[in-house]
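Q: Sequence in, structure out?
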Amino acid sequence: MAEDEKNNQSAEEENSGGQAEGNAQNIKDFGMTNMENPRGNLHCLTIVGQVEGHMLLPGQNKSTKYEHVLPLLVSVEQDEKVDGLLVILNTVGGDVEAGLAISEMIASMKKPTVSLVLGGGHSIGVPLAVSAKRSFIVPSATMTVHPIRMNGTVIGVPQTYEYFNKMQDRVVNFVVKNSGISKDVFTELMMKTGEIANDVGCILLGDEAVSLGLIDEVGGIREALECLYSMIEQEKESEGG
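A: Exactly. Output:
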């Protein structure tokens, strides 16, 4: 009997060590980790650098690859061991299609989701930040709101400008639907002149983003985690009731 208990204890220690090693590798490779807590098990996803789309970025660029994030979000939504998702953002933006795809995926999740903007949530980082059910931003973080831009050769025909307008509407409508900001205010911020050198748009500090209704609350990791755990507890109560 004592031998069986010893073997079980060794197996548990081995499993625990394997999970810790797996989490460490996930942090190193993908910037993500699982966190177990009596109040609920969380998955932490970081979106940093530039959101990479269909084209590979140079090797020296910090990037978040959407082909990694999309299947991960499916796994988080389906995994019974995961109770909620925490999204940490410090991004300069990136590919519009890829950013919107990730944003739509997060917004459509049933499980509790909370986002936290650290450093910056610029450009397509704005839809990513508001995609969670509750969003936070630290006071020192900034968010850049500007129209969609494209590098490279552009065909100078009316259809090109119509395409740009449709792309812009997709971003604006998503942000308005998933935050407390109005379409008129967001469009006005996007088309401001004089704040950004050689560009159109504006930069919002943490308090400004909240006062305009773009982000829900000013707060850091403590507030974001407390909110997420509260959402998980409410979800469990509703399911139990």
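The chain has eight helices and nine strands.
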